[in-house]
TrEMBL record:
One GO term of the biological process aspect: asparaginyl-tRNA aminoacylation
PROSITE patterns to which the protein is assigned, alphabetical: AA_TRNA_LIGASE_II
Gene that encodes the chain: asnS
Family per record: Belongs to the class-II aminoacyl-tRNA synthetase family.
Ranges where the Aminoacyl-transfer RNA synthetases class-II family profile domain occurs: 133-454
Gene Ontology MF, one: asparagine-tRNA ligase activity
Descriptive protein name: Asparagine--tRNA ligase
Amino acid sequence: ISRTRIVDLLKREDFGAMVNVKGWVRTRRGSKKVNFIALNDGSTINNVQLVVDLGEFDEELLKKITTGACISVNGVLTESMGKGQNAEIQVKEIEVLGVCDSSFPLQKKGHSLEFLREIAHLRPRTNTFGAVFRIRHNMAYAIHKYFHDRGFFYFHTPLITGSDAEGAGEMFQVTTLDLNNVPKDENGKINYKEDFFGKEANLTVSGQLEGELAATALGAIYTFGPTFRAENSNTPRHLAEFWMIEPEVAFNDNNDNMNLAEDFIKYCVQWALDNCMDDLKFLNEHFDKGLIERLQGVVKVEFKRATYTEGIKVLEEAVAKGHKFEFPVYWGADLASEHERFLVEEHYKRPVIMTDYPKEIKAFYMKQNEDGKTVRGMDVLFPKIGEIIGGSEREVDYDTLMQRVEENHIPLKDMWWYLDTRKYGSCPHSGFGLGFERLLLFVTGMSNIRDVIPFPRTPNNADF
Ligand code: 4AD
Ligand code: MG
């Protein structure tokens, strides 16, 4: 008999059939005569109950069936008497595929998330991380489906690059140097500047600039891959290695860009509600009692659109009324997540798309407004998270863009190819970046970004 995944098995009603399941023992309990084993194979959060008549099996074999052990069983699919379960298995044959000794750290339930982070190699075996990583997969699939169905092409941008797409200097350098034999300059200082086979190279912070090249050739594209930021920030919302989705569309203005962002994010959340309900219910019950209601709310509500200037006014009024923020509020200040969350959670009470930021606090490539002070950028701000998306209409005028490159002291040798697009058939275009893990924070209700990626890379954390 071939193996049935537990997710499929629990839907079956052909009671009396012989079935095979393979998986990991979650719990074992019962009397001296009959034992009940909860088996999980990762295909669903739900376990299948195995009913084992102890008299029918060898004692040595039974001893090996401990929490964490991997077993294969053949048995009869039986209607379950227990509530909530459709089917169970009356076990006829057991094979132990892998024993698990008592040093297995996941013996008991209810380990803290902090402890589980220290055993990231084993945490996918828990209910919580099984749920999170199944949702992560489903979201990745939904993202590809969304764009594919709408005629966007998945475009691969390089991870090793010479340019700094955000112009913020937050890059990890890539080196081919033999660190025992590093070149030094005349003062004896180590020369790290040109070290990728004799050139300077970094890990990418964003695929946007290459994405713009593609959009002005293929029309509409998206990237979806890892990006790296060497910011030394230890927060529940920042990773040194995170995944980003970056659509870029020729002929879209910033308004089209906002419409796309709102539609896209609602599609992803609806996808989770339609395809991940068992996992969401588990997370709702154990971590975030308001989760499912919040997800259902977001797909229905129209996002509030407000300019940065309006947002600052709201925050200044809050300060005047006595609200205390850690960081100062004034026109020109970069918004901190406390400000973003105040606007979303306390004031507008819905997701906010904030536009027209001062150019000084935004990247060099954003299209300038006629006022000479603001740029056509947009950030999508979400409850519990703050910024989930950052994007803009792009500056397409060669001279204006060149001026911004110079003002930001970006070396021309890194930008000439990007500037070329503005020389050869330039056109209006817009795009944005969604932080995949920020989306997952929202969809899973987890509160630390380290808990929505299998192997989080943060300062001091890159062991495995
Ligand atoms: O706002 P950011 O820096 O924008 C860009 O990278 C643009 N090139 C996007 C574009 O227009 N194509 O980053 C975009 C999003 C943020 O809104 C946030 O969700 C996420 O990426 N992000 C991070 N996520 C986790 N850890 C970090 N250190 C992040 N930095 C940004
Ligand atoms: Mg941003």
